[in-house]
Amino acid sequence: MPENQQIIEPLAKFHAQVYRNGRIAIPKNERDYFGIDQHDIVELIIRKIENGQIKGRGWFIAQLTVRGVLTIPLGLRKELDISDGDFVEVLLIGFIRIEDVVGERGLKIMRALRANDYRIISDEDEKRLLAMVAKGAYNMLFIAG
């Protein structure tokens, strides 16, 4: 190999079984090592392997859900002929901690959305919220405040 040529490695490489609807999981030890958690966004290369040979590869980004689960896009699964039960090779090439992008307040809002958060409010709560809207001061304080 020439002196100026470097070997480029992904952050992590692992094999995953494809579950229902194209779901795979990033192993816990990889998530722990990089500090990747639910809601974070990962950038991946996925390889379809048959008989020890790479038959196709694709790139995508995905948002993690509980236990590091993400979904391979349907179009990519179709183009690479990836079916439920198949094993794929996964290269983690990047990630973004969602909290770094949206901040703690944004993360609270995202958690509330995923949890289908709601509240029963009183007449006074409703008046206060509507008054804030009228003043242009309402910004999801009930959730993130």
Automatic annotation (TrEMBL):
Top-rank lineage group of the source organism: Archaea
Record-linked SUPFAM superfamilies: AbrB/MazE/MraZ-like (SSF89447)
A GO molecular-function descriptor: DNA binding
Segments forming domain SpoVT-AbrB: 16-60, 62-106
InterPro entries reported in the protein's UniProt record: SpoVT-AbrB_dom (IPR007159), SpoVT-AbrB_sf (IPR037914), UCP019240_SpoVT/AbrB-related (IPR016752)
Annotated protein name in UniProt: SpoVT/AbrB family transcriptional regulator
UniProt organism field: Pyrococcus yayanosii (strain CH1 / JCM 16557)
